[in-house]
Amino acid sequence: METDIFLLNISGQDKPGLTAGLTGVLAEYGAKVLDIGQANIHETLSLGILFEIKKGKKSAAVLKDLLFKSYELGITAKFTPITLEEYEHWVGLQGKDRYIVTILGERLAAQQISEVTKIISEKNLNIDAIKRLTGRTSLVKSEEYPRASIQLSIRGKLENKSEFTEKFVQISKELDVDIAFQEDNIFRRNRRLVCFDMDSTLIQTEVIDELADLAGVGEQVRAITESAMQGEIDFQESFKQRMKLLKGLKEEVLHDVAVNLPITKGARRLIDTLHSYGFKTAILSGGFTYFGNYLKEKLDIDYVYANELEIVNGVLTGGFVGDIVDGNKKAEYLKELAAKEGIDINQTIAVGDGANDLQMLNLASLGIAYHAKPKVKDNAQSSISSIGLDGILYLLGYHDRHIDLLE
Q1: Residues 15 and 139 in one domain
Q2: C-alpha distances in angstroms, 322 versus 81, 158, 288, 307, 313?
């Protein structure tokens, strides 16, 4: 049986019953729907239906009735004939690689989107879909916590991924926007373990620096901390140097520091959402278990691995108990936790800001440098610097409405 194939494009003011009315006409003529898609922006509809119909009188009649129905519904209809060769070419494209590009910022400007999509176009990749992940924003009321994110689903053969992502990194720096690139595979939609660094990630401070201030050695310790975070000196050596400087500090000050830890913006929203969707969470920190355990209770974290302070007679000795949790240890703990929970390493996420986080960031399926040092941002898979920690939810494809339903 010979058939005709048409692409029906509909545009106009959205209202209930449009799709039902149009597909009802197609049903009367026994048409077969080959593809269908719809988008709605500011209550304006864009609907596409690719359909197959028996060639002959039926073919002409269905087009006429679709035009009448469109007029009746107050929308505009456009028909494009599709050859069998064009259709089969389109079918053949479904095997191509697929990727997700997520753009994040406090607000998004046309220039930022233009530059990102230009890079995609230069690599001859096609954008299949664009979706806004954040809620609608008022132009009249000011927002306490502005954030905007869109997700681009792209398709095609990418020859040089590193060159592609390097261009995104450059644009991100120039235009103050975060751009994340991921393969669109089954693991992206089924991640189950998120491991966080603690200092300057879950909390907006370096605890060891605060302890050093109370011990009267703040300047010395802060200088060593910064060199370690930048990757200029070995973390283990820097840790030992800083610990010695804390010798003599009284244990009672630890509680005062813990209860005043500044939680990172978006952390609670992120962790509450992750738990609601069945994720496991962990702190993997080069800091201290005392503060990690405090956050474990406060934020309902599942696991904590950090360094244990040595305390004798209520005073810090300047030493520590057990192995130092450095970059190697963080990566080891990530693997151990994944195995313990029966989670594939491709289902893991790691978040951190310092040089000693890079190993776990690159081991995890999704490694996110959060408000990180330049060296870390340049070597991590993804980074977030423009909005809060809950921006991670957009990299997982969640829309604000998925999150708001849980609050």
Answers
A1: no
A2: 72, 46, 12, 8, 19
Query: Across residues 281-287, what is the average pLDDT?
Result: 97
Phi, psi of 298 (to 5 degrees): -70, -40
Do 170 and 275 belong together in one domain?
no
Co-location of 145 and 82 in the same domain: no
87 with 104, same domain: the answer is no
Tell me: do 200 and 347 sit in the same domain: yes
* Token pair in block for residue 346: 């491709």
Which amino acids are annotated catalytic?
197, 199
Burial of 207 (0-12, 13-18, 19+ CB in 10 A): buried
Structure tokens at 196: 């966080």
Residue 96: the pLDDT is 78
Percentage of the residues of the chain whose pLDDT score is greater than 90: 83
Q: What is the CA radius of gyration of the chain?
A: 27
| Boundary residue ending a domain (32, 62, 93) | 93
Residues 325 and 343 in one domain: yes
Residue type, position 322, single letter: G
pLDDT greater than 80 at residue 1: no
For the beta carbon of residue 151, count every other beta carbon within 10 angstroms. Answer: 20
pTM summary value: 0.90
- Residues facing 130 on adjacent strands: 152
pLDDT at 407: 65
> Which of 149, 184, 219 is where one domain is finished?
184
Q: Which residue has the tokens 């605890």?
A: 207
What is the number of helices (H) and of strands (E) in the chain? 16, 15
Tokens of 124: 């001859």
Strand pairing partners for 250? 315
Residue 259's CATH number: 3.40.50.1000
Q: What is the pLDDT of residue 402?
A: 84
How many structural domains are present in the chain?
3
Compute the residue count for the chain.
Answer: 407
Q: What is the CATH number of the domain that holds 105?
A: 3.30.70.260
Per the structure, the complete domain to which residue 351 belongs is given by 193-404
Kind and range of the H or E element at 70? helix 57-73
Q: For residue 49, list its beta bridge partners.
A: 8, 36
299 & 206 share domain: yes
Q: Which two tokens stand for residue 165?
A: 């992502």
Residue range 64-85: average pLDDT? 97
Strand locations in 17-105 (E):
32-41, 44-54, 76-82, 98-105
Distance between CA atoms of residues 238 and 225, nearest Å: 7
